[in-house]
Amino acid sequence: MYSFLSYKNISSIGKKAWNKCAKNDNPFLSYTFLKNLEDSNSIGPGTSWLPNYISIIDKNTIVAVCPLYIKLDSQGEYIFDHSWANAYSNAGGQYYPKIQLSVPFTPVAGNRILINSNIKLSESNNIIESFAEYLKELTDSNFSSAHITFCSYKECKLLENKNFLTRTGEQFHWKNNKYNDFDDFLNSLNSRKRKAIAKERRHINNQNIKIITKSGFDITNSDWESMYDFYNNTTDKKWGRAYLNKKFFRLLAKNFSENILIIFAEEHNTLIAGAMHVIGKDTLYGRYWGANKDINYLHFELCYYQAIDWAIQNNYDFVEGGAQGPHKIQRGYLPEKIYSSHYIADVNFRKVVENFLLEEVKIIDNDINLIKDKYTPFKKKIRF
User: Fold this and answer.
1) Peptide bond before 97: cis, by omega within 30 degrees of 0?
2) What is the pLDDT of residue 382?
3) Which residue of 11, 35, 182, 334 sits 20 to 30 Å from the alpha carbon of 203, by its own alpha carbon?
4) pTM here?
5) Cβ atoms of residues 112 and 54 within 8 Å
6) Interhelix angle for 347-374 vs 82-90, to 10°?
7) Do the domains at 3-170+336-372 and 177-316 have one common CATH topology?
8) Where are the domains of the chain?
């Protein structure tokens, strides 16, 4: 019923066709963001992310598209399968290359099979299941595995019918419960957490640090240069290599700035730190942070408290702070489940992974329940 075409560059699909399927809900899935990754050579030849975008066609019309990549390692994915790769290799297999459906370097959930908004629900389910069959055939003939990371729960459920395995993880998100202002949010916290946050913010105020918030075309070329330097500084400290280069940041400045919020810290008229956020439809996404001076609590101020304040002022429903995060709990971020879907070509190894995932999800469920029951930073509601 459907035909599938693959492309080495997203421009072969075209902006209009891609965005008609991606819609406008998630800026990371937009044609412009993905093309910036490609045009900056942050992905492509010479990297471990080789684009192989897919279009799904029905009656000569593109009804869906997918951000698919041939992956040569497991870097920049945030759903970690290094132990799977090691076990596969120890058993005599070749784990790489593998198939990856995701947004490179971006731990943000969303649909991965992007379906035209004109398609009815029943047909969209058929598209997902048909694509699953195509992906299985592609994997069985050429690859060890296919991984659809940070996808939707609905996609996982449909893919389970096609021998894909669902993996459950957790992230920490802040939810706007119709707060009037930051103080209103603080008042929703228990006394201990409220005082801790107040202390941290007071410490920053006492340093005579000026907070500067810029978005859209108010962000100057100099600001972008500073933000890239801060980002590079952090990646040098943590990983030794930046995934994203200066050209990528320049492309963001040129064609993506309306989606960007940057919060700087300034001391004595000199920028000393910056946090870059991406503005979605109802969510503010924290992405990159860096500083050239170590000041206690400055990271929390720029990445969390200022983001929360902005979300409240602008009536945004959520703030997502990216990967990792138990330290976010005491700052009002609670755990949410995230999902990925995996197809392992080798039947025996698939069973091993399935058993691992069954045990892993128990740990995730217990952790989430424990946090929400005993470690929530919010005032406990009185039960009658």
Assistant:
1) yes
2) 41
3) 334
4) 0.95
5) no
6) 150
7) yes
8) 3-170+336-372, 177-316
Encode pLDDT of 302-331 as tens digits: 999 999 999 999 999 999 998 877 889 999
For the chain, which ranges sit under pLDDT 70? Answer: 235-241, 381-384
Tell me the CATH number for domain 3-170+336-372.
3.40.630.30
What distance in Å separates the CA atoms of residue 319 and residue 335, rounded to the nearest whole number? 12
Looking at domain 177-316, its CATH superfamily turns out to be: Gcn5-related N-acetyltransferase (GNAT) (3.40.630.30)
Angle, nearest 10°, between helix axes 31-39 and 246-255?
A: 150
Report d(CA 304, CA 286) in Å as an integer: 8
- Alpha-carbon 78 to chain mean position: 8
Check residue 350 and give left, alpha or beta (phi > 0: left; psi -120 to 50: alpha).
Answer: alpha
